[in-house]
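Per reviewer request, we include the raw input and output of the structure prediction for the construct analysed in the revised manuscript.
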Amino acid sequence: MRVATFNNPTTVFEGPEGLTGFEHDLARMFARRLGVRVEFVMAGSFGEILPLVRERKVHFAAAGLAVTPERQKLVKFGPSYQKITQQVVFRMGEGSKPPKKVEDLIGKTLEVTANTSHEEALKRLKVQHPTLDWNAYKELEPEDLLELVNQKLIDYTITDSNHFAVARRYYPSLAMAFDLTQPEDLAWAFPHSNDDSLYNEMLLFFHNIRSDGRLDQLLERYYGYVERLNFVDLVTFKRHYLERLPRYKELFYCAENKTGTDWRLLAAVSYQESHWDPDAVSPTGVEGLMMLTRGTANDLGVEKRNDPEESILGGSVYLSQLRDIAPEEITEPDRTWFALAGYNVGFGHVEDARDLAARQEEDPNKWAVVKNYLPLLSKEAWFKQTRHGYARGKEPVNYVDNIRGYYDLIIRFDEEEKAEKPKATILEISTPLAL
């Protein structure tokens, strides 16, 4: 099964363990239902996606496509799986005044990607605002245009709300000015055809994943945590990444070699715990880079909790232990999120939340489900039903969300640093994937 898509943070991209992304996972789920292999055909630009579909070079496109009247004339869309708005993005700063309406864009430098729903929306608006003008570029993608706004080379661009929710973490000075459109549906695009067998299978697939919660779980995996970090969080993190983390990178590398846990995840845990301050001490007595309790440190053989090497290795071993004790039916990445919650609040309370979910006939092995039950552990009507009793259950939810955000940032910054160095080979991301 050939699927057209595009390299983008909201579609398909290269992650720490290979291809990943919302559309990637969704298409693989569909292929698994059909019992076929999926081959992702990476479009060279966004404007190439629909022609691939219309010319039947692919079976369909899974590329975060907004359903618009113009596009409906060209292709046949499936059911909506996500709603977004188109947003005007600007750079915050002293003296900068955010635009509040379309009229405020007139006379400013507004640039968008050509052949996108963003350009379609502007063309519709130009009917009411004849002096509205913009530049559209085939060779520049939304991420490129965000960078231009960030560098103050242009005033505004337009991006989808789901894309900006992800991208704003890398550009803390950028902000959404206003929604340019009403909510729009995202859907897969199929060619108009007399044979609707694949299309009908797709309709059944979406009905099933919406009914059994898998669609919501996938949305949580990629979007359920991205808006946790605010401007101050992001700016502070970038400063500490540059100034503090380099002192401890080798220790995180060593911990990864000994325990197999991605050093970038360990660094994210450490930042959430201590902001990479080896002398950090909490009011409850936990201390060090990985904020180990005295009891946990003793169990791990950590003698000096404020010793960076001991703390990082101890925290890494402890996280591995928590991951190992999680029930085997919990798969990744949920297994890691459960382990992180246990690191914060204790795995007994995590098990209590899983039990509550199971009693409500929801899946206790999915973090997207259990994260909704953990906060109930602070309510007497609920914690009285559990083995381990009261817990500040909202804290581990925020804790895990923050770490997921920091982990994404470290991966991004680490990849940028690698890209600045000479490369021996270039990774191809359009290879067929076996299911």
